[in-house]
């Protein structure tokens, strides 16, 4: 089965690297950005649109029969839940403010389940990628989640927004710190999940995300030996829900968040 995904996995890695170079050049010249507001703490820049267009063009040339879903254009699948899913810049707020916590995300799904994922962090030149049944990798080297049994042995990423039960995040942070743990806020969901998969973080929680935010990272965590909640049943843009991922030894300690 992994051989079935090999061509798409290789292409995904090459495409997000190319897209990342375009985004990185703009990140270093942020004075040229044009920004539109989609909602509270929700923006889109001209670079989001440019990067998504580039990815769509490359996918269309390599896999002309494949459906494509993107955060900025064509949010919903036109022909079921087997499609490429694009987040051109996950962490747009960080991107436009000069904070290096952002990445380019590309996932291929079959029946809404991710089978190929590529997450590229241009600032650090790190490519996280995974295939279903084929393992998880960082710049070609295998990665595994942390071997941790206690919350005091590392950091846990906790997100929050006004639409996703912010009281849960606040209460968890308070209990975590009181019990000797510590939290961090990563500005991009896919990046936080990548850090769990690579053992940098013990767990990550986001209260309200879309499929293009979480699917790539969830596959990465699972292939790296970690645990997550279930995948969303659909790629439809309204399918927003919490995402939780952790090293197996901490799952019982953090699953109350979900």
Question: What is the topological layout?
Answer:
Elements (H helix, E strand, L loop, with lengths): L1 H26 L7 E5 L2 E4 H17 L5 E3 L12 E8 L1 H6 L5 E8 L2 E9 L4 E6 L3 E4 L2 E2 L12 E4 L7 H13 L3 E3 L4 H9 L5 E7 L1 H13 L3 E2 L12 E6 L4 H4 L4
Parallel strand pairs: 3-4, 10-11, 10-12
Antiparallel strand pairs: 1-2, 4-5, 5-6, 6-7, 7-8, 8-9, 12-14, 13-14
Describe the structure.
The protein is of the alpha+beta class. The protein is 34% helix and 28% strand. It has helices at 2-27, 46-62, 92-97, 166-178, 189-197, 211-223, 251-254, and strands at 35-39, 42-45, 68-70, 83-90, 103-110, 113-121, 126-131, 135-138, 141-142, 155-158, 182-184, 203-209, 227-228, 241-246. The chain has a 7-stranded mixed sheet, with helices on both faces. The protein has a 5-stranded mixed sheet with strand order 11-10-12-14-13, with helices on both faces. It has a two-stranded antiparallel sheet with strand order 1-2. The longest helix has 26 residues, at 2-27.
Please name the defining characteristics of this protein:
single chain, 258 residues, alpha+beta, 5-stranded mixed sheet, 7 helices
Share of helix, binned: 25-40%
The rough form would be described as globular
Given helix and strand content, the structural type is alpha+beta
Order of helices and strands: HEEHEEHEEEEEEHEHEHEEH
Strand order of the largest sheet: 3-4-5-6-7-8-9
Integer average pLDDT:
89
Please state the CA-atom Rg, rounded to the nearest Å. Answer: 17 Å
Main pleated-sheet profile: 7 strands, mixed
Strand content: 25-35%
Poorly predicted spans: none
Number of helices: 7
Q: Span between N and C termini?
A: 31 Å
Strand segment tally: 14
């Amino acid at each position: 089965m992994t051989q079935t995904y090999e061509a798409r996995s290789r292409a995904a890695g090459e495409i997000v690297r190319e897209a990342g170079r375009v985004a990185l050049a703009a990140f270093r010249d942020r004075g040229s950005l044009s920004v539109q507001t989609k909602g509270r703490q929700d923006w889109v820049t001209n670079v989001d649109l440019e990067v998504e267009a580039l990815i769509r063009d490359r996918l269309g040339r390599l896999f002309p029969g494949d459906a494509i879903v993107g955060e900025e254009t064509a949010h919903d699948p036109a022909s079921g839940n087997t499609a490429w899913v694009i987040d051109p810049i996950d962490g747009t707020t960080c991107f436009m403010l000069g904070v290096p916590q952002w990445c380019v995300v590309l996932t291929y799904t079959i029946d809404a389940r991710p089978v190929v994922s590529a997450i590229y962090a241009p600032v650090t030149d790190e490519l996280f990628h995974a295939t279903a049944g084929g393992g998880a990798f960082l710049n070609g080297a295998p990665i595994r989640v942390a071997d941790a049994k206690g919350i005091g042995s590392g950091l846990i990423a906790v997100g929050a927004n006004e639409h996703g039960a912010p009281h849960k995040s606040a209460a968890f942070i308070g209990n975590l710190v009181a019990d000797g743990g510590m939290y961090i806020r990563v500005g991009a969901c896919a990046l936080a999940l990548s850090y769990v998969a690579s053992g940098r973080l013990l767990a990550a929680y986001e209260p309200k995300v879309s499929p293009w935010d979480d699917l790539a990272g969830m596959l990465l965590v699972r292939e790296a030996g970690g645990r997550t909640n279930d995948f969303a049943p659909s790629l439809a843009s309204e399918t927003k829900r919490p995402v939780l991922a952790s090293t197996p030894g901490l799952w019982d300690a953090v699953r109350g968040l979900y």
